[in-house]
Write a structure and sequence with these properties.
Blueprint: H1 9-13, E1 21-25, E2 36-39, H2 50-53, E3 57-58, H3 66-72, H4 79-90, H5 94-107, E4 109-113, H6 122-130
Parallel strand pairs: 1-4, 2-3, 2-4
Amino acid sequence: MLPTSRRSPEDTHRAIPAAQVRLKRAYEPAAKEDGTRILVDRLWPRGIGKAKAEIDQWLKDIAPSTALRRWFGHDPSRWEEFQRRYRVELADHSATLAALRDQARAGGVTLIYSARDEVHNDAVVLRNVLLGRPGPIAHVVTGEHHGN
């Protein structure tokens, strides 16, 4: 369970240094500099025991929905749309996101994930959301016609 904290209005919008939110595969060994290790996948990583994983918290509910995870299937061609859809899902978890930001500011967190692809996975999106980084820009079709 994430701790609740008393936030001042200034803290809510205070930037989090990028080094305070790290990413790591569940199959990599835990390290002292990981800070709080938070598993952000809906499913437990295959073939790794709970003791070896050294997970401090497991936030299943903040992971992409089963439907979104299956649709994405770690297909890089769906990456932009996956990011957009996952950000929509994350909007329903504002209290959890706020608590994660507080933890990151207080001492750093490592978001643990099991995907093989270290660039195209839900932890990358979640980290960007926590750091306040914008998502992909939707392509706009203007419908303008040139000529007669």
